Automatic annotation (TrEMBL):
Signal peptide: none annotated. It comes from the Bacteria. Residues 99-119 have a biased composition (Basic residues). Residues 120-133 have a biased composition (Basic and acidic residues). This is Aminoacyl-tRNA hydrolase. It comes from Flavobacterium suaedae. Pfam families: RF-1. Keywords: Hydrolase. Residues 99-133 are annotated as: Disordered. Residues 16-32 form the Prokaryotic-type class I peptide chain release factors domain. The keyword Hydrolase applies. One of its GO terms (molecular function) is hydrolase activity.
Amino acid sequence: MNKEVLQQELNYKTARSSGSGGQNVNKVETKVILSFNINESKGLTEDEKQTISKNIATRLSNEGVLVLQCDEDRSQLRNKKIVTDRFFTILDNAVIKPKQRKPTKVPKAVIKKRLKNKKLNSEKKQMRKRPDF
């Protein structure tokens, strides 16, 4: 994954933020919308594209475009930085392949303990029975 190339492939749009803020909200476009087409990216290998598409399939549009937006701050530059950082953390987490789980054997001591408890339970219940004359 080449982050410099990915940085150049990002498309930013601005829009007016919602919510309270008075005239600032009504006049200034502080909301930043980031869009990134995974399938047409030159900064990702084919294997990375498939892995990312599989891992974040719910966040992608039908065309394979990841769209993120941020209107947390009153500054457009800070919102742009926040949404870019969020984009790279999402990609980094999507590329990570989980470790393969190795099934472990049941220890012999555990098996012995279980059989011993079964035997004790059996003897206890045998003692509760009526004696056979």
